Each structure stands twice: as structure tokens, then as C-alpha cells.
Amino acid sequence: EVQLVQSGAEMKKSGESLRISCEARGCSFTSCWISWVRQMPGKGLEWMGRIDLSDAYTNYSPSFQGHVTISTDKSVPTAYLQWGSLKASDTAMYYCARHRNPRDWFDSWGQGTLVTVSS
Amino acid sequence: QSALTQPASVSGSPGQSITISCTGTSSDIGAYHHVSWYQQHTDKAPKVVIYEVSYRPSGVSERFSGSKSGNTASLTISGLQDEDEADYYCSSYSSSSIFHVFGGGTKVTVL
Q1: Which letter does DSSP use for residue A9 in this model?
Q2: Contact between chains at B34 and A105 (C-beta distance less than 8 A)
Q3: B89, B5 in Cβ contact below 8 A?
Q4: pLDDT per position in chain B (111 positions), as tens?
Q5: Is the peptide bond before A77 cis (omega within 30 degrees of 0)?
Q6: Nearest partner of B102 among B33, B26, B47, B23, judged by Cα
Q7: Minimum-distance CB partner of B93 among A62, A97, A103
Q8: From the CB of residue A103, how many other CB atoms can be counted at a distance below 10 Å?
Q9: Interface residues of chain A, partner chain B, Cβ below 8 Å
Q10: Are B31 and B99 in contact (CB under 8 A)?
């Protein structure tokens, strides 16, 4: 069974950079794609992008392409979500979610990382 | 605006059955069996309750069932219980550049 453990809450200012992490325990032994999902306050789930932990192949939603970077350190294994310049509108809860294959459902979810950006 | 369309809210009394619809297009729900449903209690992470249209993960109550017809998927909760009060999201794989699309979410209230 795969367990996803995310890094803690962050409070940042507009323009600052940030990287949050998602440790994918159990992904050394099985196929793992990790997707990142945003949930803004009081709103629904939005798919941001995904990465194959085995070869770091990534896909991004057009809504997030160019604003965030998804990467991995497969030796751990861990997925990362990174911003070069945060905006106040990036304030949200961010979840990582695992799927076994590119088209599969999300069978494990991290506990979420709350990112708060002040202007 | 979400890619998949769900009703904003559905309610029912304990013991009743409710159904949540999720309408997409021929590029997502209509094209694939990769439709899933997620339950999210307040301030908790989502949890899958249905995958591949109609399969239940181990540990999920038999009261949850899923189906699909054309571009519309449905989640039915039978024998509604207080613990079912939560937000529910549908999701589908998509041939668009957004590979995984979600519905806007449905708030289920147990009266």
C-alpha cells in the first residue's frame, strides 16, 4: 500500500519562491504517478499536473503550465511542486495523489499542504 | 467553470437513496471507463469511493454504487447515513490537454 506524506503548511509573501513535497512511501516497489491537485478556499478540486516517478515524465494542465514546476527525486521517492514567484491567488490547499497508471483513478491521497500567500 | 457538471447540492433523509449526476463530453466520460468518484469530509483529504465507473475499493460500503450512460456518470448512495454527509467529486480521464478533469462537487446533506 502506498502512503503519501506531504510537507507542512507554508506562509509566504507575493513574489517569493516555494517548493512543497510529497513523500511517496511504497512507490519504490510499484508503479507510481503523482498528480498535484489544488483546492482554493471553499472551492472544488483542480488537476494541476502529474509526474511519473520512474522517469520524471511530466504533464501540466494548461491553466498551470509555466507557473509551477513538478519534479521528483526518485531515490527517496518524493514528488515536488514548485513556484518561482508566488501570487496571492496561489493561496490554497494542495494535495498530491497517486495513480498506478496514467489513466487510472487516484487511489491514495496526501494529507494536504496549506499554502498562504500574502500580498 | 469545471470541465464536468454536477449539481451543487443533493439532500435526503436517513435511509433514503440519492443519486448524483456528472455530465461530461465525448472527450472524457463518453470516451473512457476511467470515471471515479471521491468523498471529501470537511477539512479532510478526498478519498476514492468508486473507480472505473462502478468498482468499489476495499473498505468502501456496498451502499455506494456507480454507473455511466453516454456522457453522464452517476453515483448512488443507498440507505443514506449521517456519515455520508460530505462533498462528492466526479473525475474522468480526458483526451484533452487536461488529462484528469473534475466536476465542481456536490454537497450531500443528510436531513
Answers
A1: P
A2: yes
A3: no
A4: 778 999 999 999 999 999 999 999 999 999 999 999 999 999 999 999 999 999 999 999 999 999 999 999 999 999 999 999 999 999 999 998 889 999 999 999 999
A5: yes
A6: B23
A7: A103
A8: 16
A9: 35, 37, 44-47, 50, 59, 61-63, 95, 97, 102-107, 109-112
A10: no
φ and ψ of A85, to 5 deg: -150, 105
Q: A110: distance to nearest CA of chain B, Å? A: 7
Question: Distance between alpha carbon B26 and the CA centroid of its chain, in Å?
Answer: 18
Cell numbers at A12, concatenated = 509566504
Q: Which residues of A touch B31 (CB under 8 A)?
A: none
8 Å CB contact between A25 and A3: yes
Listed residue (A51, A27, A35) closest to A98, CA to CA = A35
What distance, in Å, lies between the first and last C-alpha atoms of chain A?
A: 40
Q: How far separated are the first and last CA of chain B, in Å rounded? A: 29
CA angle A46, A47, A50 (to 5 degrees): 160
Grid cell locating B90: 466526479
| CB pair distance less than 8 Å for A45 and B97 | no
CA distance linking residue A80 with residue A82, whole number of Å: 6
